[in-house]
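With this grant's support, we have settled on a layout for protein records. An illustrative entry appears below exactly as we store it:
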Amino acid sequence: MAVIVPCFNAGRLILETIESLQEPEPLELIVVDDRSDDAETQQALAELEARGVRVIRGMENRGAAAARTTGLNETTAPFVFPLDADDLAIPGRISRAADLLEANPDAAAVIGDYEEFGNATIVRAVPDALDPYRIAFTNEYAITSLFRRSAVEQAGGWRDPLPEHRGYEDWNLWMDLAERGARVVHLHDVLYRRRLHAPGLDLQARRRHAEIYAALRRLHRPLFADLAAHRRRSPLSRPRKLLYPVLYGDRKLIGFVRWLKPLLDRAGVWTLRR
């Protein structure tokens, strides 16, 4: 199993991330430094190298998509687990996911729920299957899943939909897989822990959402051309099938992102209560 950790100015958080990787099976671990320019991160990376962790240092800052794809190209294990430099693995979960992927040779990935932590703690429920109708309007699937290398390579790795704007590289990959009719298997457990920060790159991407979403539609014409068929086959309830194009897609109802999502969280929609 290859674990790819892209890093840009993560500071000493990356040490916590690496320490969280505790598995009964060996890991092919690689950290891809995306031209970090702060002293704390450089010191942390030097500590990791002293421990024997392989660190690739980029010559320029190219973004998370390029860093993950660099890690993909620099590793050889058949299964790939991308983990951001400030998130945390859960001991033993990657190995459990690998067992599932081995038991399902036709599956492209093992997905799981994930815990958000930071200002508050909440467990996000990830859909049981890769639904092309859902993914055409919104990405409810986590960046961090255990992927079959061959499936990611066939999709071209992680790619920004718009080269001049970073963001939504994970959504682009899930669209690639859905377009190919890929099957995924659900762990039915929390797969990893995602750290929440103050809004940054993700907020910037959301502000350009309509532009990037239009690029996704251009890149995935077959997916959107078959939308009516995907809608019929989707396991979503009829009300949700009607709501997804209204609430998501190009997000003409821009206020949704700002105030409706917290209300849905409190109501338990798309979350698992402890």
Summary: The beta strands are 2-7, 28-33, 54-57, 79-82, 88-89, 107-117, 122-124, 146-148, 183-195, 271-272. The chain has one domain: 2-272. DSSP finds 13 helices and ten strands in the chain. The first strand starts at residue 2 and ends at 7.
